[in-house]
């Protein structure tokens, strides 16, 4: 059985580590199973995470609190970031919202 891996831009590492980003919005990716996974970053770092919930919404359906879980202050900020990754994204496209929490080893 292989570990689920979700790729993130390296700029999100500290936000995820500190629990400021607890969700990622994706399109055109497979449905991730709930449970333990790895967040892999573009600079080669990784963090253990637990995927706790997956929902599907359009950007317009998202609440402000959902946008903030993603690490953004406004829908416009999130939308502009998503367009950077998905230039063909439309406002009525369903986003897969992957909610997670960072699991760090408690020594």
Automatic annotation (TrEMBL):
Residues 6-104 form the ASCH domain. SMART domains: ASCH (SM01022). It comes from Ancylomarina salipaludis. InterPro entries: ASCH_domain, PUA-like_sf. Transmembrane segments: none annotated. This is ASCH domain-containing protein.
